[in-house]
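Exercise (ungraded).
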Amino acid sequence: GAVVSQHPSRVICKSGTSVKIECRSLDFQATTMFWYRQFPKQSLMLMATSNEGSKATYEQGVEKDKFLINHASLTLSTLTVTSAHPEDSSFYICSANTGRDSYNEQFFGPGTRLTVL
Amino acid sequence: GQNIDQPTEMTATEGAIVQINCTYQTSGFNGLFWYQQHAGEAPTFLSYNVLDGLEEKGRFSSFLSRSKGYSYLLLKELQMKDSASYLCAVLDSNYQLIWGAGTKLIIKP
């Protein structure tokens, strides 16, 4: 099956610093990648959708200048949380789909737990 | 607005059967997914339904009724490892996934 990796799996940083999270599709080319945020005991919240070579589409309420997304290739997307604050502490999950299947199943990465002190 | 409803929490006994319901109201429908998510981990795909009826896959089955905006996930022969959250998600007319809040399933011995 399709495998998606994320790095790092955990990160702890000081308030005001920037953190970059990588999402890679290991054995397929991802037409579209998605970035989600999940707070404890809540469902996934879509932050943005990115297509290779074009600007990401952000969901309402998500600051595009704070959460920078770069989808430079068909196998790599990065999310940079700029000037992170404690309220940005969350579980960040990326997913990707191949565009091959009619129903566009999303394959999820293992997630990155961000803690901002 | 778009809405996905599923129970917050359910408890069942090891070896038993449990049914997790999901009702939805979305702008368009291009299929319904069920995902399993263990605590601290990313979701894993369980099933996809786009036509009415029951899809069986081992111990797990998923049912869809588009006219009723209703789906359920049926888990048989429950095992302790099935303790997890189960997320219902609908692909809307824009092919965007709309997520339910998830049902936390607790399995007791």
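Further reading is listed at the end of the chapter. For now, observe: The mean pLDDT of chain B is 93. Chain B has no helices and eleven strands.
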